[in-house]
Design a protein that fits this description.
The chain is of the alpha/beta class and about 210 residues long. Helices cover about 20% and strands about 20% of the residues. The termini are far apart.
Length: about 210
Amino acid sequence: MNYFIVGDIHGCYNTLKKILKNWNPKEEQLMFVGDYINKGKHSKEVVQLVRKLQSEYSNTVCIKGNHEYQMSKYIFQNTPNHQMKENYKYTIEHYDLRHKFLSDAKWMRNLPMYYENDAIYVSHAGVNFLGFRKFHNESMWSVLRFRGKLKKMKKLQVIGHTPTEIGKPIYLKQYNTLNIDAGAGNHDAMAAVVINKNGKLIRTYVEKVMKNDY
């Protein structure tokens, strides 16, 4: 089975629905690299759609992004409001994760930080070249946050987190890494890729973020 992997979403529900029209559930395992929430206006709808798909297709893989980590920390460890970035504000005000949608907050908290098999390694930001503190949530070296020189693996790394400068996925040959964050959080584009069972890129899909998502 091939892999259909979706890049950073950032509350862009309508764009997500559009890009998912390219997914073939019978032939492709669905995966997400994280950052479902914030920046765009429809974080709740995105999370509920992703959770619905995860329920209907049990092999769906949902990776934790730094935005899910920070939001669940805000909910469960009572991070002061002034310590939350501006781009969390709309979600905090319009998505009642403390009460009505607490189960969504628990889902965010419990997401895995990576997925790997013999062909691919999927995480939000990628494994740093030293493999240093890669699973330490608060570290800038972690797979939630790292930006910099990546570890080159024999298997293909697939990541998001750092928007590509060209608004579409880019293969970083020196790291054997595919960055699929096309900049949805910047109201640019959302991307998805199809990877075959041997870790080779087959197809790329890019959708410009729709205006009704921001």
